[in-house]
């Protein structure tokens, strides 16, 4: 908002939207849910090559033990989230949609489910390369939703100079509060993780960017930092999509990642708070990523809150415990702006799942979904954080001029944040058009 | 867990601002209604009949073209209603009803349906209709009636009920009957242009002058426009910059020769400029979507309006200025694409 920047001298990103935030679960402490009878662990919970199974059907596994190994560098291993027996390796539905190969584990009912596999280490002795290796071994990926392998993100290419680690505590998606709770409940683990990441990347400075609707987290983290600490906490404007990498870098440092470029091109590496708190917890113990915090919320949920669940927990199991109702319901993994809707309740929670939202018909949309022609109201143009022209892109998409979209109207810069569709009074599914256009262009290029 | 749950599958985003086309259009109608009411108070049942006939014709034509193209009714989006009200307001209050119906039909047919309906039309349909009758019925469209004449609620202006396909009668005699003051039948614009008489600014602001049905009260137009702008259903930059463009252009000429040329405030308040700037130039469909494009478009309309007024054969130029602006919009949009986030352009 221009006025905001003017008044407060803050150089944030321009455009963006202010949807209702529904952060009602912000005061709900993280609680553990009972283990489900069976876990579904897809081998490709991360971006990159799927992991390679290390177990066979019928084999007994203990909680924490590696059950699949990384397939090369662009991949991460998988650890058993519960003690039990491997029921098989089968094709199962995943948040990514179609069926993919997954390890099924029948959880032992009587087990106390303590972590029985770990390799504690003295972190102070590790070199940057060893930290990177330890991160890969932990199976950590971006927990904010991207699920990009963390060790790859933190391994800075030789030709790039990185000076700042930006810690993303924005959590700009409506409903989600799991990162907020992690900051409040695990500040020490978070700061430990930040130090590891700074050592791994050789950065001298870290900025924790937090939207100013979470001032309690801002104050708390500031309280944990001594004077002269290389870590800085910065409150940024509450505005969607503040938590996208490029926007946060702009807000925190006033640097603009060039089109098609990476944060490293402007000397920055960005990590999510949940990811770093996870590393701060796991690395010294030498454990793998076996569970995560998710926000379960939405009007259809009886007991909304933040829950610590083992990876692989089917969403049906969670719903049974928190209670939900609704005749026509949408189940969303992640936030309402970018999260996918799932069609099967057997779909498991994976490493990249930050939330489970149950939206009932009235809250999905009060209005009918009638699509009108573009009335050129320009709302999408003034909402797009990438400063694209979604109106024009939408019209070209309708004419199937996909190449022109990419060549003349920067289609590839669209990161599918959803701002344009959100504001469009004609209910044009712009983002969906853009996804299709990109997919077709990719196909043609291949 | 209930067994009857139907799982909905949609693509993200799963949230929407909630304001759709219908809400926006309906609010435009709300903003226009006070202006319509004022017009009726000012010119009586003739103005009311004109509003009703023109708007109904727009609705019927829209429905007809829906049927012809095999689409479902689009009357629910209110856009045809807006076209009707706006068109009626640009016509003289005593404009023959049958001619008003022609304007409405032509506006919807040539200005909208031909392009494929709402959103596809390059130009403002109300102005297309108005431009057509301007050319077809040059006399009727410049026959003005005094405001607040006696008996305006009990009798029609003689021209109003002109039978179809006939030209309206002269009304000079009738005018002298219904008014006490001498009324020259001229609008402030015509008075200024041809006789050098400048109408009192206050009268124009309040709307007690002669003029097109809905063009006379700058104040009500402003109120309606500000309402829409406050609700972000109208881009305030367009009307403001149209008026700025007009005022600055007029100011330059006024400084050169204050006797020959009208002062900028007169230019802004007179004729259809207010209505055009707030409700027609700002029409989303015909205006650019890029921030810079909007500025160019609006200034251009302001400047052209004044040039036509001062140097053209017509007293009013706003209609053609907006149509020109509409026509230039695709080009303006194309050359003013915003700089994309992270894009490196030469020289930046
Ligand atoms: S989805 Fe793409 S085009 Fe739409 S607002 Fe986001 S970046 Fe812009
Ligand atoms: S928001 Fe929708 S209707 Fe408005 S210009 Fe963009 S695409 Fe067109």
UniProtKB/TrEMBL annotation, chain A:
Single GO biological process annotation from the record: electron transport chain
Listed Gene3D superfamilies: 3.30.70.20, NADH-ubiquinone oxidoreductase 51kDa subunit
Enzyme class: translocase
Annotated cofactor note: Binds 2 [4Fe-4S] clusters per subunit.
Keyword Membrane: yes
Subcellular location: Cell inner membrane
Residue sites binding [4Fe-4S] cluster 2 per the record: 384, 414, 417, 420
Membrane topology: Peripheral membrane protein
EC number annotated for this UniProt entry: 7.-.-.-
One Gene Ontology term, aspect cellular component: plasma membrane
Residues of the 4Fe-4S ferredoxin-type domain: 360-395, 405-434
Main location: membrane
Pfam family, one: RnfC_N
Residues bound to [4Fe-4S] cluster 1: 374, 377, 380, 424
InterPro entries: 4Fe4S_Fe-S-bd, 4Fe4S_Fe_S_CS, Ion_transpt_RnfC/RsxC, Nuo51_FMN-bd, Nuo51_FMN-bd_sf, RnfC_N, Soluble_ligand-bd
Cofactors, names only: [4Fe-4S] cluster
Molecular function terms from GO: 4 iron, 4 sulfur cluster binding; electron transfer activity; metal ion binding
Subunit comment: The complex is composed of six subunits: RnfA, RnfB, RnfC, RnfD, RnfE and RnfG.
Function: Part of a membrane-bound complex that couples electron transfer with translocation of ions across the membrane.
UniProt record similarity statement: Belongs to the 4Fe4S bacterial-type ferredoxin family. RnfC subfamily.
Entries under HAMAP family matching the protein: RsxC_RnfC
The protein's name in its UniProt record: Ion-translocating oxidoreductase complex subunit C
From TrEMBL, chain B:
Keyword Phosphoprotein: yes
Keyword Cytoplasm in annotation: no
EC number: 7.-.-.-
Regions that span the bilayer: 28-60, 97-115, 127-149, 204-229, 236-256, 262-280, 292-311
Record keywords: Cell inner membrane, Cell membrane, Electron transport, Flavoprotein, FMN, Membrane, Phosphoprotein, Translocase, Transmembrane, Transmembrane helix, Transport
Function: Part of a membrane-bound complex that couples electron transfer with translocation of ions across the membrane.
Quaternary state and interactors: The complex is composed of six subunits: RnfA, RnfB, RnfC, RnfD, RnfE and RnfG.
Name under which the protein is recorded: Ion-translocating oxidoreductase complex subunit D
Organism: Candidatus Thiodiazotropha lotti
Gene field: rnfD
């Amino acid at each position: 908002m221009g006025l905001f920047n003017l008044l407060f001298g803050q150089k944030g990103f321009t455009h963006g939207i202010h949807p209702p935030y529904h952060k009602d679960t912000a005061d709900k402490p993280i609680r553990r849910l009972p283990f489900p009878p069976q876990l579904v662990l897809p081998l490709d919970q991360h971006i990159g090559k799927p992991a390679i199974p290390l177990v066979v059907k019928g084999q007994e596994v203990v909680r924490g033990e590696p059950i699949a190994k990384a397939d090369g560098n662009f991949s991460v291993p998988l650890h058993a989230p519960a003690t039990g027996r491997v029921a098989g390796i089968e094709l199962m539905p995943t948040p990514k949609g179609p069926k993919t190969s997954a390890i099924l584990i029948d959880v032992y009912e009587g087990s106390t489910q303590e972590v029985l596999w770990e390799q504690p280490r003295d972190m102070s002795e590790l070199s940057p390369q060893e930290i990177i290796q330890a991160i890969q071994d932990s199976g950590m990926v971006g927990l904010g939703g991207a699920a990009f392998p963390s060790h790859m993100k933190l391994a800075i290419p030789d030709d790039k100079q990185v000076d700042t680690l930006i810690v993303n505590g924005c959590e700009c998606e409506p409903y989600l509060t799991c990162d907020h709770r992690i900051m409040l409940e695990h500040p020490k683990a978070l700061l430990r993780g930040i130090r590891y990441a700074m050592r791994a990347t050789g950065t001298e400075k870290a900025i924790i960017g937090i939207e100013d609707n979470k001032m309690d987290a801002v104050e708390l983290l500031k309280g944990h930092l001594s004077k002269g600490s290389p870590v800085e906490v910065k409150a940024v404007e509450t505005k969607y999509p503040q938590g996208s990498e490029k926007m946060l870098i702009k807000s925190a440092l006033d640097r603009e990642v060039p089109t098609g470029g990476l944060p490293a091109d402007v000397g920055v590496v960005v990590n999510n708070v949940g990811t770093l708190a996870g590393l701060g917890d796991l690395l010294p113990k030498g454990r793998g990523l076996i569970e995560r915090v998710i926000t379960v919320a939405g009007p259809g949920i009886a007991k909304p809150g933040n829950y610590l669940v083992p990876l692989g927990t089917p969403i049906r199991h969670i719903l049974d415990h928190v209670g939900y109702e609704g005749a026509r319901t949408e189940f969303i993994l992640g936030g309402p702006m970018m999260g996918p809707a799932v069609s099967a309740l057997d779909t498991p929670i994976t490493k990249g799942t930050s939330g489970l939202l149950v939206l009932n018909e009235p809250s999905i949309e009060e209005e009918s979904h009638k699509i009108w022609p573009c009335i050129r109201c320009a709302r999408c143009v003034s909402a797009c954080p990438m400063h694209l022209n979604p109106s024009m892109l939408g019209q070209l998409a309708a004419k199937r001029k996909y190449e022109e979209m990419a060549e003349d109207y920067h289609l590839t810069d669209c990161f599918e944040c959803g701002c344009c569709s959100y504001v469009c009074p004609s209910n044009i599914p712009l983002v969906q058009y853009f996804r299709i256009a990109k997919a077709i262009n990719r196909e043609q290029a291949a | 867990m209930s067994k009857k749950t139907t799982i909905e599958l949609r693509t993200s985003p799963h949230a929407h601002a909630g304001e759709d086309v219908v809400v926006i259009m309906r609010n435009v109608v709300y903003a226009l209604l006070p202006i319509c009411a004022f017009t009726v108070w000012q010119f009586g049942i003739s103005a009311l009949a004109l509003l009703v006939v023109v708007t109904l014709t727009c609705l019927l034509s829209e429905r007809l073209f829906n049927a012809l193209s095999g689409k479902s009714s689009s009357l629910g989006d209110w856009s045809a209603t807006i076209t009707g009200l706006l068109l009626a307001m640009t016509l003289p209050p005593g404009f023959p009803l049958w001619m008003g119906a022609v304007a409405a039909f032509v506006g919807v047919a040539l200005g909208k349906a031909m392009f494929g309906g709402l959103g596809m039309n390059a130009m403002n349909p109300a102005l297309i209709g108005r431009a057509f009758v301007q050319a077809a019925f040059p006399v009727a469209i410049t026959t003005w009636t005094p405001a607040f004449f006696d008996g305006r609620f009990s009798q029609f202006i003689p021209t109003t009920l002109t039978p179809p396909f006939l030209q309206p009668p002269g009304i000079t005699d009738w005018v002298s009957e219904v008014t006490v003051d001498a009324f020259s039948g001229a609008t402030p614009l015509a008075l200024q242009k041809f006789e050098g008489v400048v109408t009192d600014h206050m009268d124009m602001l309040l709307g007690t002058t002669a003029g097109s049905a809905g063009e006379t009260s700058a104040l009500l137009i402003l109120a309606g426009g500000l309402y829409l702008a406050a609700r972000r259903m109208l881009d305030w930059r367009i009307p403001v910059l149209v008026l700025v463009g007009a005022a600055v252009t007029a100011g330059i000429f006024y400084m050169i020769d204050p006797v020959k040329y009208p002062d900028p405030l007169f230019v802004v308040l007179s004729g259809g400029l207010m209505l055009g700037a707030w409700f027609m130039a700002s029409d989303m469909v015909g205006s650019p979507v890029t921030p810079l494009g909007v500025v160019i478009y609006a200034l251009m309309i302001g400047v052209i309006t004044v040039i036509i007024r001062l140097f053209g054969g017509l007293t009013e130029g706003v209609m053609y200025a907006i149509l020109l602006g509409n026509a230039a919009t695709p080009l303006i949009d194309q050359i003013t694409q915003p700089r994309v986030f992270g894009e490196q352009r030469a020289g930046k």
